[in-house]
Design brief:
By secondary structure, this protein is α+β, with helices and mostly antiparallel strands. The chain has a single domain, classed as Aminopeptidase, CATH 3.40.630. The protein is 30% helix and 28% strand. The protein is built from 6 helices and 8 strands; from the N terminus they run E-E-H-H-H-E-E-E-H-E-H-E-E-H. The protein has an 8-stranded mixed sheet. Helix 4 links the parallel strand 5 and strand 6. Helix 1 packs across helix 3. The relative contact order is 0.14. Bound molecules: coenzyme A (COA). The site of coenzyme A has 20 residues, from helix 2, strand 5, helix 4 and helix 5.
Length: 201
């Protein structure tokens, strides 16, 4: 698929480009990324270049993972990143087949606390469901990542439980993670059933 733009009055999601490398490199120095993300650590400038020049374009081209840059206006400075990975079909107990995707995201430190990520998740989910490319969106974060859990909760994800992560972490393990899901027909309001420790500052 060719990259395309999603937008609302609050945030623009457009194509991450080579010129975003300074911001990606800068933001990925946040020690929170070492603790909670699967990005390489230490994070070097060549990691940012490889992400923008190889990983992102090949994800779009192969329809494996669609990655957008969050910006205030088209082409403005990169604020963060959101990606939708297509993870395949699953067959439910009632034999219905679901097309699954998983969402991942981060914001540069100065751009947190503005409500950008729940809005970006809404844009990506609306497109992914309305295009029919997936009908269930999955989210996970490592235990203790309250900011990520709150962003998913605010976007209407239902809590699925604590399970081994789907994502492989840089130490080769699949640590315990909070997991959630959002289905095409779901209400997008915050849902009950989340553990207090995932939402409590
Ligand atoms: C996850 C993330 C994108 C959310 O961004 P955001 O929507 O702007 O949200 P904030 O960072 O402002 O935090 C969201 C909420 O969590 C709270 N929070 C943030 N850090 C927290 C912490 N360490 N402990 C407890 N609560 C925390 C905030 O107070 C905020 O509360 P509110 O919902 O009442 O406003 C952003 O925090 C981030 O980029 N984190 C690092 C990368 C990351 O973990 N990505 C997700 C990987 S699964």
């Amino acid at each position: 698929m060719r990259p395309f733009v999603l937008s609302s009055p609050l945030v623009v999601l457009d194509h991450p480009v080579a010129g975003d490398a300074d911001r990606v490199f800068e933001y990925c120095q946040d020690p929170i990324f070492e603790r909670f993300l699967t990005v390489p650590w230490p994070y070097y400038r060549e990691h940012a270049d490889g992400f923008l020049n190889e990983y992102v374009p090949s994800g779009w081209m192969s329809d494996r993972e669609y990655t957008w840059a969050l910006r205030d206006t088209p082409g403005a400075e990169l604020l963060g990143v959101i990606g939708l990975r297509l993870t395949g079909d699953s067959v439910a107990a009632d034999a219905s087949v679901h097309r699954l995707g998983s969402i991942g995201f981060w914001l540069g430190t100065p751009h947190r606390g503005r409500g950008l990520m729940p809005e970006a998740q809404r844009l990506v989910a609306d497109w992914a469901f309305s295009s029919g490319i997936i009908d269930v969106l999955q989210w996970e974060c490592l235990l203790g990542n309250v900011a990520s859990a709150r962003a998913a909760w605010k976007s209407g994800f239902r809590f699925s439980g604590v399970r081994s992560s789907v994502a492989l972490y840089r130490d080769g393990s699949y640590p315990d993670s909070w997991q959630g899901h959002l289905a095409a027909g779901d209400d997008r309001a915050p849902q009950p059933g989340w553990p207090a420790e995932a939402l409590a500052p």
